[in-house]
Amino acid sequence: MHKQLTLLSTIFFALLISACTPSAANTHPAASATPDIAATITQAAETIYAGATGTALALTSAVTPTQTPTNTPTVTPSPTATQTLTPSPTPSLTPTVTPLPPGFIPENAIVIYFVQTGTGGPIGCGDTLVKLWSGNLRTGDLKTDLTIALNALFRAGQYFGNLYNATYPSNLYVVDVIHDNGETHAIMDGSYVVPKDSCDASRYQSQVQATARQFPEIRRFVPWVRDKLLEDLLAIYSDSGQDK
Questions:
Q1: Shortest CA distance to 152 belongs to which of 195, 226, 232, 214?
Q2: Cβ distance 149 to 97 under 8 Å?
Q3: Would you say residue 211 has pLDDT above 50?
Q4: Does the pTM exceed 0.70?
Q5: 170 vs 175: CA distance, rounded Å
Q6: Cβ atoms within 10 A of the Cβ of 70, count?
Q7: CB 220 within 8 A of CB 183
């Protein structure tokens, strides 16, 4: 484009100079020559203008503005709630033993004995012993099984249905078992409560002896409360007028 403008400008000025300078052969040119020169100049100017305009339009259409990318907003995820674990409650241990009915006694069960009063039986004051399952099975070790049996008896409640437990007021437990040639000694500790009368004293003695002698290895059973024989303690009861 620059070369075209330069060429047209050169032609334009050359025509202008030739028009203004008189010729040697014809000092006074004809009047009709002036309009031809003016027309030529006008056409040249229009050509220059048209060329410049066309080039500008071509350049304008060639330049396409670039698109500015728009930012896409990012979505921030909302935090999820954390689940709080509630600790499970710790089960409490019950110190008492609930015996099971006589009909639910396995063959190798550890049993305890309660009293059914007023039956005309051989113990107490015309009473009968009834065995109940302690809920434990025999381990095969005499000392362990005897300890389980006596502790279950002293931890049992006062009544089971219409059956009575004369050992209920006491809170004794086995600390040692000595077994020698069929004779077994059980040393107990804890609190001993004097029976209310001779009937309860007899029931107490019978319950302890029957609970211990369920094991065939025991031919003679001797229970102790610390350094005193249980048999001697049971000889003293409340309605005898004597105190421990």
A1: 214
A2: no
A3: yes
A4: no
A5: 16
A6: 6
A7: yes
